[in-house]
Amino acid sequence: MRTTASYYDGQTAGAERVALQLIGGSLLFELAGATQFVELNTASVVEPVGRGPWVVELADGAYLKITDADFGEMLAEESDSSGFVRMLEGAWHWALVSIVVAVVATWATLTYGVPALATTVAFALPENVSAALRDEGMGVLDDVFFDESELSEESTERVTRLFDDIKKTNLDFRPYRLEFRASRIGANAFAVPGGIVVMTDELVELAESDAELMAVLAHEVGHLHGRHSLRILLQNSVSALFIAGLTGDISNITALSAAIPTVLMQAKYSRDFEREADDFAFDYLKLRGVSTDALSDLLRRLDDSESEDGSELAAWLSSHPPSEERKHGE
Amino acid sequence: METQQNQAPRPVTVEFTGNAGEYFKIWIVNIALTVVTLGIYSPWAKVRKLRYFYGNTSIEDGHLDYHAKPTAILYGRVIAVGMLFVYYLLSQYAPTAGLVLITLIVLFIPVLIVRAKVFQLRNTSYHGLRFNFQRNYKDSFIVFYGGALIALFSLGFAAPSVIYLRNKFVANNAGYGRTQFQFNGRQGPFYSIFWSSVGLALLGGLGVALFVGGLGSLFGAAAGGSSGTAAGLAAQAIAIITTLALFGFYAAIGIYVQTRQRNYVWNSTVLGGNSFESTLSVRSMVFIMLTNAVVIALTLGLMIPWAQIRLARYRAEHMTVHLADDWRDYVAAKDSQGNALGEEIGEAFDVEVDFAF
User: Fold this and answer.
1) Of B81-95, B252-266, B267-281, which range is least confident?
2) Which residues of B touch A109 (CB under 8 A)?
3) What ipTM is given for this predicted complex?
4) Residue A320 DSSP symbol
5) Cβ separation of A61 and B81 shorter than 8 Å?
6) The domain containing residue A139 runs over which residues?
7) How many domains does chain A have?
8) pTM for this entry
9) Scanning A108, A320, B92, B356, which has its CA 20 to 30 A from the CA of B326?
10) Residue A263 lies inside a defined structural domain of this protein
């Protein structure tokens, strides 16, 4: 089979038109009066993209461009190029299949794959982050959000007793520690990586029963026990990397559209971890024979105590599930 | 190469022949294969994408081509992701070591920039001859850190000088074969672009404030006497409209700066006897970029290929090369291929690599 091709020597700009023949796995062409003989297994055949040419890269940096499609097919047969990607790129029905595959695979990766990977990695690592990091984390929280606790000794002792009871349910919980702080951002409780649960004075005061305090303490212990801080760090970074990998080639302005799915995904991960901690709390409350309504009662009062900026739209982006939904463990 | 000014320069417009339908199929297959292979296919996807865009760009009878080996890019990406992972682990268990690692990486940004440019340009050819980038690490450090100091000590007011220095660095170290590009621009125009963008930003901020104020009183009057929820909804609508308007406006200012700088840099750059003329209009660029963003958002990303092709076509149509030399006179630099390491580590750590070209 023969055709005309463009020969680029890799040393100068511009092409040489050459008559090209394919004979038994070798290419033959005339160049400056001399016959060139190239075995295909010493060259690499590069498939076309779109309507582009076939390219044969020769060992010395020169290359041939071939626009003759039939000749290209012969080249593909003689070389080891599979043609699989070219087949997919060549027809609209494969494009439709690709859309479905891309959507399903992306969804499955982000919803199941990434969390499973993060869980595996998080539990394969030693639980205790360094004391330095834990203290650093506490230090930042103290600077930004907290002041010294002003609770009476009586109430701290009462809450600590409840906390110690949760610790009794599992030997793994022994290193966990409870701290009290006055909050600058309203009633809340935190699980600090490294095993510290922080209760704010405001939340202790907001709680109307021991059951509610048990619920919120168990919820935070659930965060610590599930290694949620490490898992969310891993999930957020892996998913951001994944989404960036898919959309990373779009230009600066439109890159914002890539930030939206990332933010939504991370909000979803956060809600998932809240639910997991809720389930942990429900299990504990049932174990102690306390009504699981305690958690939702407290959360509802927490919602009411916050300013009225919570709108329908904000719920979509929320990092926590809506309170009404967080009722029962069933 | 001997520069021969033996012919009058003839203007040739860059031609872009890509089309959205054809590229859509390539793009969606790239994404599907990348997702299914958990990212391993991404270097192949990148190469196919660039081969499509370059292969469809021509000046006279010569095409651009992209030659990078996907395996070289994969190698770089594996190292970059590995370092990222190590960094995350360190920041969790040994924060000081993590800080040392990130400091080392930041220190080496000038090296990464040079490596990325070398990889990008040496894998790009026109008419079968590859572009080139000098491994000028010394100037890269001077421009990057010197520029940062200038910007810092001038409280940002000398930022245009920094942009000027960076563009000059990139253009003067780029070459086609063994012939260097030459940047003949001055600092002044970068300052005029800078100050007009500052002026626009201030004017626009005022405009948006007035607009929102007007809307607010309008809605306030309309909701007056009615229930609190209506007023709340109105407030929310105003907040959303304001955010979108502000975002659109500041994006437009960004496009204004980029477009005028791009025009100026190309118009001040020569290659041998050839010069360039970039005539992008700010208004068209703003229109294209903003409508692209809206269309992409409304179609959940499905129109990304269309948006990219549209932008590439507009850019090509507004780029003219004034050809004076015979391409035959251009010959290759001595060494040719660099590996992908610099570029891909740069990508993974969000290093800004694309200065001007």
Assistant:
1) B81-95
2) 35, 38
3) 0.79
4) S
5) no
6) 131-325
7) 2
8) 0.81
9) B356
10) yes
